[in-house]
Amino acid sequence: MIAIIDYDAGNIKSVEKALQRMGADVVITKDAEEILQADKVILPGVGAFGDAMANLKKYNLDDVIYKVVENGTPFLGICLGLQLLFERSDETPGVDGLGILKGEILRIPECGDLKIPHMGWNSLKLQNQGRLFAGLSEESYVYFVHSYYLKAEEEEIVKATAEYGVTIHASVEKGNVFACQFHPEKSSDVGLQILKNFVELN
Prior knowledge:
Elements: E1 2-5, H1 12-21, E2 26-29, H2 32-37, E3 40-43, H3 49-58, H4 61-70, E4 75-78, H5 80-84, E5 88-89, E6 103-107, E7 118-123, E8 125-126, E9 141-146, E10 148-152, E11 158-163, E12 167-174, E13 177-180, H6 188-199
Parallel strand pairs: 1-2, 1-3, 3-4, 4-13, 5-6
Antiparallel strand pairs: 6-10, 7-9, 8-11, 11-12, 12-13
């Protein structure tokens, strides 16, 4: 069973639908026991960093996430879910992220004609043999919607980058923790393959 953490963020249902399409058993839940008993856990979401951290704390889900990671359960953060795994964000100065991974979330700089938020399809440059990208080709296209991007401290955890006026750390993996800045659930066949690779992790 795959638990999708419900912390009142947007875009949770589309992740559920994508997983159900591939026949996965999925539950959207705030319940600590249900999350801790799941085979895999996903933290999706769109919204503001500070509000999201406040909601995680309000429902004691920050502690649940730390336990999931400590237990070695495969964990996937998507979009805002990726950003929350890191230490801090330009979006909400003074608010600590979960700090499970080292690095910071920075605002995408103004650059020529590039629009912010970064919204639409962009190609990935794969590196460091990411398990989520098994069976996918270099330059696969995925769908992004964000105004802030990850700069990870540990280069070796970065498994995919994208260019948008700056190099975006688009996907990371460390141990049982996986995360994507883009939306696999909105990224057509490539995205479904990424989700399938996550579902099939041992």
